[in-house]
UniProtKB/TrEMBL annotation:
Entry's localization field: Cell membrane
Protein name per UniProt: ArnT-like N-terminal domain-containing protein
Tagged with keyword Hydrolase: no
Superkingdom of origin organism: Bacteria
Domain ArnT-like N-terminal: 21-176
Native species: Candidatus Woesebacteria bacterium CG_4_10_14_0_2_um_filter_39_14
GO cellular component, one term: plasma membrane
Length: 444
């Protein structure tokens, strides 16, 4: 339509969109590759490589040991989750690069480096991180708290200039809201209206802090932390980490430890369905922490032994996990795609315009908000386009087709799902079953 894009992708909160900077970030790569979509895959891989370079740079600053920095950077570069997220285009997959760039800028600012460039770069990165995925809000809040803590040593003019850059990156979304009847604001309001208090953890309790902490450390240590030996190792490491965090006089390490722990705690305030990619912005931080701890080892022989063990683990662990992390995952994705396409044909034969859809997936790890997977197949292959996925689109739909991959679902159980809540059905009008799915037609 030859109009500038003011919003990005829809978030997991219905009706709430991200800002649009990801699209503009990828545009140069699309032109370089003559509008071939594979260009943004290359862009993602490019940012992944730059992340590795920045991680090595930061590790040399934290450890003052190039060999240790190289060892940990190699481990990060061969980590299956990191490699996998660098292989295809998706807005969260470029977040680690800008987190590393923000870390470089933050350390330069706290060191007292003169000039506006690092303030501008820091807030530009923070704004872009939020543009890429709203999980970046957690990182922004942690950074902002640190800046306020060290506010006396900051250049106030540069600080507020950086805030202006940050706000400028969010301005398209604000403008979109003003032009479209505050759709994002309403999305946030609806989220709290249709997700009552029991959807938010009661302070001071945080949901899944320990699980997120284990997951992130697993990026470095190939250990089963649920086993007895794994729990012992984790407990010893955590005690050492926390004690050193309090005893250390190294300001960089304290800043790093605070960012890591506070980000995990803040991320755990989100009680809704949590996916591993929500923590993508934290992936490099455990490697910086491990490097900082190892660099404190006074015995050179012990330190070098750890380095060689890490280099060895880097290749052994990566080779061991290659089959499950890549080949099997890709095969499973192909099989899932064929299954969804076949099931979508069954749904397409039953739906009648106008309609909307919702689903409950048999795999809790599959991103299934708004039945996005079924929407794709219904629209692309069978020309059956559902209404949009904003709350108002569910409210105005005359019928809602609910796809269950988990067997029979009662009317009361459906009512707990937000799409059904917003639709407010009065009854189940019809029900069909084929193979492993059940399709319900809900009406008002």
């Amino acid at each position: 339509d030859h109009k500038l894009r003011l919003i990005g992708t829809q978030s997991s909160i219905p009706g709430l969109y991200t800002p649009p900077m990801y699209y503009y970030l990828m545009t140069p790569f699309l032109f370089i590759f003559n509008l071939n979509p594979v260009g943004i895959d290359y862009a993602t891989a490019f940012f992944g490589l730059l992340t590795v370079i920045l991680l090595y740079y930061l590790l040399t600053k934290f450890t003052n040991d190039r060999l240790l920095a190289l060892s940990l950077t190699s481990l990060y570069g061969f980590q299956p989750s990191v490699v996998y997220q660098s292989r295809y285009a998706w807005n969260p997959n470029t977040v680690p690069f800008f987190v590393m760039l923000a870390m470089v800028s933050l350390l330069k600012i706290l060191k007292g480096t003169k000039g506006f460039r690092y303030y501008g770069l820091l807030f530009f990165c923070l704004g872009l991180i939020i543009n890429l995925h709203y999980s970046g809000v957690v990182f922004f809040v942690s950074i902002l708290f640190l800046l306020l803590f060290f506010f006396k040593r900051l250049n106030k003019k540069y600080f507020f200039g950086g805030i202006a850059i940050f706000c400028l990156e969010l301005f398209p979304l604000i403008l979109f809201d003003l032009r479209h009847n505050f759709v994002n604001t309403k999305g946030i309001i609806n989220y709290f209206l249709y997700n009552p208090r029991n959807d938010l953890p009661a302070p001071p309790f945080f949901v899944g802090v320990f699980d997120k902490y284990k997951f992130l450390l697993n990026l470095v240590f190939p250990i089963n932390f649920n086993s007895t030996s794994g729990l012992i190792f984790l407990s010893v490491f955590t005690l050492f980490f926390i004690s050193w965090l309090f005893k250390s006089k190294n300001e960089k390490f304290k800043v790093l430890g605070f960012l890591f722990l506070s980000s995990i705690a803040l991320a755990s305030l989100y009680k809704r369905g949590f996916f591993a990619f929500y923590l993508t912005f934290l992936y490099p931080l455990p490697f910086l922490i491990i490097g900082s701890l190892f660099s404190r080892t006074k015995q050179k022989r012990v330190k070098r032994l750890f380095m060689y063990i890490f280099i060895f683990l880097c290749f052994v662990w990566s080779l061991k996990n290659f089959q499950t992390s890549f080949v099997q995952v890709e095969n499973n994705r192909i099989g899932l795609g064929e299954k969804l396409r076949k099931n979508s044909l069954f749904v397409a034969e039953k739906v009648a315009f106008p309609f909307n859809i919702a689903s409950i997936s048999s795999d809790p790890e599959r991103f299934g908000f708004n039945a996005v997977d079924y929407r794709y197949f219904l629209e692309t292959f069978y020309k059956k386009q559902a209404l949009d996925w904003d709350p108002i689109d569910y409210q105005k739909a005359p019928s809602l087709y609910f796809i269950s991959e988990v067997g029979e679902v009662s009317f009361s159980q459906m009512a707990d799902i937000w799409e059904v809540k917003v639709f407010q059905p009065s009854k189940i009008a019809e029900k069909w079953q084929k193979d492993d799915i059940i399709l319900y037609k809900l009406v008002k």
